[in-house]
Design a protein that fits this description.
By secondary structure, this protein is an all-alpha fold. The chain is built from 15 helices and no strands. It is about 80% helix and about 0% strand. The radius of gyration is 20 Å and the shape is globular.
Length: about 425
């Protein structure tokens, strides 16, 4: 049961609905920073002199690269100074990176801004998860994370349309101005309304020896590492999709200005499943939810791969969209549950644990998506192949992590 259900705003704690809304707004900064850029890829390439299309994938990769380093820093920092301060520091850095990208006149400066954006957004991303872990546990934590992740997944429904709408009335740089506005609202809301959840007596001072020892403890948990690799596989598939989506829809399928609409349709199933996951997980457990989601993802991606081989790399658009909606409906059930499964045993090391899990999974996602992305040449085959490979790897990691916990006398749904 959640602590927040027992405490109300009269006790100095946010009501649950406002809590979910605030943290969904902060955590959606990550998705909005990536997805709102997609319709602007051609404009950014022209403005900054990018000639090779594959280099536009750096727009996404640079931000994830910054996140990878930020996640290493903000985890232990949130354990040392508190969740709230850590989130506010991250938002400040994120705003600075957004301003740099907004005013960039070269690809080098633009990518620097994106790296700083990624570094900064790691503050709210990591510390928010640790804050949720302070107040929730078990299935209740998975439930809250599901509702937060529902909004996180819902962002792709609107983000490309928002980016395209901005470009219809202004330059692509104003997309970054909009991101600055959202970050400012989230930071102000947090500052005024959310109390600190990590008490001073539970804070862990920054100490190199202790930090190294705690990292070793986390890395020694084979179940946590297995679930981290699982997250890296699925996140890698999502990154591969995001970095190639604009070209697949507009260059391969010639959707033109309808690209944001079709991109959003792929996210509908994920949003619906994520909303339902909050209720389903308390009935059947996290493990069964993840097994079902990964199995469906593998089956759908395998059918998509077979269709690309039959249709010379470009299956009919209706088939591509149908299978895509099924595949993406699995994301919502995987991310929230596996994050909860990985974080649950880490206790007071929640901040550092979130840091290690996120940085490693982000690193793996960059490696996986970049390697598969090198084979992209205006067909759907690399995307389908990547999802088949990532799904198989994820299922293997899930089985390994669960068997390790069983041998340790633990159960994924009981810890």
């Amino acid at each position: 049961m959640s602590i927040l259900k027992k405490r109300t705003s009269a006790d100095g704690f946010l009501p649950e609905k406002e809590f979910i809304a605030l943290f969904a707004l902060m955590m959606s900064l990550t998705a909005l920073s990536m997805d709102s850029m997609l319709p602007a890829f051609p404009n950014i390439a022209t403005s900054l002199g990018i000639e090779d299309y594959q280099k536009t994938q750096w727009i996404v990769s640079a931000m994830i690269f910054g996140m990878m380093f930020g996640e290493i820093i903000f985890g232990p920092l949130s354990d040392a100074i508190g969740r709230k301060k850590c989130i506010l520091i991250g938002i400040g850095i994120y705003i600075g990176g957004s301003v740099i990208a907004l005013s960039a006149s070269s690809i080098e400066v633009f990518l620097l801004g994106r790296v700083i954006q990624g570094f900064g957004v790691s503050g709210p991303k990591i510390a928010s998860r640790a804050l949720v872990r302070d107040l929730y546990k078990g299935a209740a934590m998975a439930r809250i994370m599901s509702f937060v992740m529902m909004v996180f997944i819902l962002v792709p429904l609107l983000a490309p349309s928002i980016g395209q709408l901005v470009m219809q009335v202004a330059d692509w740089r104003w997309i970054f101005a909009l991101l600055v506005f959202q970050a400012s609202v989230a930071g102000g809301w947090l500052l005024l309304r959310q109390p600190e959840t990590l008490t001073k007596e539970n804070r862990i001072p920054l100490n190199r020896k202790r930090l190294i020892a705690d990292v070793r403890i986390i890395l020694s948990r084979r179940d946590v590492m297995a679930f981290t690799v699982l997250l890296g596989c699925i996140f890698g598939g999502l990154m591969l999709h995001i970095s190639t989506a604009q070209s697949i829809f507009q260059d391969v399928y010639q959707t033109g200005d309808r690209f944001p609409l079709y991109f959003a349709l792929l996210a509908i199933g994920s949003s619906v499943i994520n909303f339902s996951n909050g209720k389903i997980v308390q009935r059947v457990g996290m493990l069964r939810c993840v097994i079902a989601a990964l199995s469906v993802l593998l089956a759908a991606s395998f059918v998509l791969l077979l269709s690309t081989l039959y249709f010379d790399g470009v299956p009919p658009f209706v088939l591509f969209m149908g299978l895509g909606m099924i595949m993406f409906s699995c994301f919502g059930m995987v991310f929230g549950n596996v994050n909860a499964m990985a974080m649950e045993p880490l206790g007071k090391m929640a901040g550092l644990g979130a840091s290690v899990i996120s940085s490693l999974s982000s690193f793996l996602a960059i490696v996986f998506s970049t390697l598969v992305g090198l084979f992209y040449h205006f067909t759907v085959t690399p995307l389908a192949s990547g999802f088949v490979i990532f799904s198989i790897m994820a299922l293997v990691m899930l089985r390994y992590g669960n068997r390790y916990r069983q041998r340790s006398g633990e159960n994924v749904d009981d810890v």
